Amino acid sequence: MRGRERCAGVDGHGPSAALACALALAVGLASAPAAPAQAQEEAPASSGGELTIRADRDTLTVGQRVTFTGRRQPARRGQPVELQFRRAGGAFHTVAEAETNGDGRYEVGARPRRSGTFRAVSPRPDGALRSRGVEVGVRASLTVAARRHQLRDRGVELSGELAPGDAGRRIAVQRETPKGGWDTLAATRTGDAGAFRTRFEPSALGAYGLRVQVGANRSNLGDRTKLDHPVYVYREDQASYYGPGFYGNRTACGQVLREDTVGVAHKRIPCGTRVRFHYRGRTRVVKVIDRGPFIEPRRWDLTEGARRQLDFPRGVDQIWADR
Q1: How many of the other CB atoms lie within 10 Å of CB of 45?
Q2: Which residues have CB under 8 Å from 155's CB, separation 6+?
Q3: pTM given for the model
Q4: What is the per-residue pLDDT across 132-188, written as a single tens digit (0 to 9) for each?
Q5: Cβ of 102: how many Cβ atoms within 10 Å?
Q6: Local confidence band at 29 (pLDDT 50, 70, 90 cut-offs)
Q7: Spatial separation of the C-alpha atoms in residues 15 and 305, rounded to whole Å
Q8: pLDDT tens per residue across span 177-220
Q9: Is the pLDDT of residue 103 over 90?
Q10: Which of 63, 127, 115 is nearest to 90 (CA)?
Q11: How many CB atoms are closer than 10 A to CB 112?
Q12: Dist CA 152 CA 235 (whole Å)
C-alpha cells in the first residue's frame, strides 16, 4: 500500500517522525473512497428445465371451457403434464392431465366452476417442474323464468337457478326504466342447489322488462340475466261485444263501424289508445274507437272483429286488459 511505503521511508528519523507517519497513514485510510459494493445477482434459473403455461382467456362463464397451452424444456415426447387448480383459500389439486409432443408442447383444458389459479406441473425424478400461476375469473350463471301474462293483484312471480349451486346468494329482481336504467323491485336468496323464487307487487299495468342480478364473491364473478320476453301485467275486467245494428254508422271516435272492424269501446280512455287484451291464451292489441259500454259492471265492448281474434264469446265474460 502507498501509506506503508511512506512510513517505510521515515525509518531511522526518530520516534516523532514515526508517530507522524502513523497519523498520516490513518488519515489517508479514512479519507480514501470506499470500494464499490458487489452487485447482487439473481439466482439462475434451474438448469433442470422449464415449464410454461398460457390460458386462451382470463374470464369465462360457468360451463365454458378454458384451454391452456405451454412447453416443457428440455423437450421430449410423452412427458406427463398435470393441470392443477386452486380456488381462493384452497390448495392446489389436479383437474386434468396431458402429455408433451416431440417439441415439448402440451395442450389441456378445463371447465372451472369457481374463480382461481391454474398452474402446470410436470413430475421428474429429482422433483417436479412447476409453471407460474394463471388467474382465471369464472362468472356465475343465472337462469330465470316468468309467465308472460300475469294479473296485477296476484303479484308477479319469477323463479330460476344460479350456477354454481350455492345457497344463500342474494338475487335482485330489477325493472328497466324509460331512461335505460334499472330499479330493484324485489330481492331474495338462493336455496339448495342455487334455486330461487320471488315475487313483487307491480306498481302499474303494462309491460315490464325484467332482469335478475347476483353480485360477485370470492368464488365467482357476478352475473345479470335479462328475461327473454316482457312480462305483461293486467287487471281483470268484465267485457261484452257489440256490432249488429250499428254497422255503417260512425263511432264516437269518427270511424265507420264495419263487421271486420277491430277495436274496442271504453267510456273514458282517449280515442286511439292501444289496449292489450289477454283471453284464454290469446292476446291482441286493439285501439279504442268508440264509447261504451253503458251497462255496469262491464268495462269494455269489443267489436266483432276483435271478438273473433280473441275467440271471445258472443256475450259477457271476464277478460284481462292492460289499461
Answers
A1: 8
A2: 199, 200, 201, 202
A3: 0.77
A4: 999 999 999 999 999 999 999 999 999 999 999 999 999 999 999 999 999 999 999
A5: 9
A6: very low
A7: 135
A8: 999 999 999 999 999 999 999 999 999 999 999 999 999 999 99
A9: yes
A10: 115
A11: 21
A12: 6
- Domains, in order of start, for the chain: 50-139 (2.60.40.10), 148-229 (2.60.40), 233-321 (2.40.40.10)
pLDDT at 297: 97
Residue pair 125/159 in contact by the 8 Å Cβ criterion: no
- Burial label for 16, CB within 10 Å (0-12, 13-18, 19+), is exposed
Count of Cβ atoms closer than 10 Å to residue 216 Cβ: 13
* Dist. CA 284–CA 276, nearest whole Å: 6
CA distance 280 to 283: 8
User: HEC profile for the chain?
Assistant: CHHHHHHHCCCCCCHHHHHHHHHHHHHHHHHCCCCCCCCCCCCCCCCCCEECCEECCCEEECCCCEEEEEEEECCCCCCEEEEEEEECCCCCEEEEEEECCCCCEEEEEECCCCCEEEEEEECCCCCCEECCCEEEEEECEEEEECCCEEEHHHCEEEEEEEECCCCCCEEEEEEECCCCCEEEEEEEECCHHHEEEEEECCCCCEEECEEEEECCCCCCECEEEECCCCEEEEEEEEEEECCCCCCCCECCCCCECCCCCCCEECCCCCCCCEEEEEECCEEEEEEEEECCCCCCCEEEEECHHHHHHHCCCCCCEEEEECC
Scanning the structure block, which residue is given the C-alpha cell 389439486?
93
CA 262/CA 271 separation, integer angstroms = 14
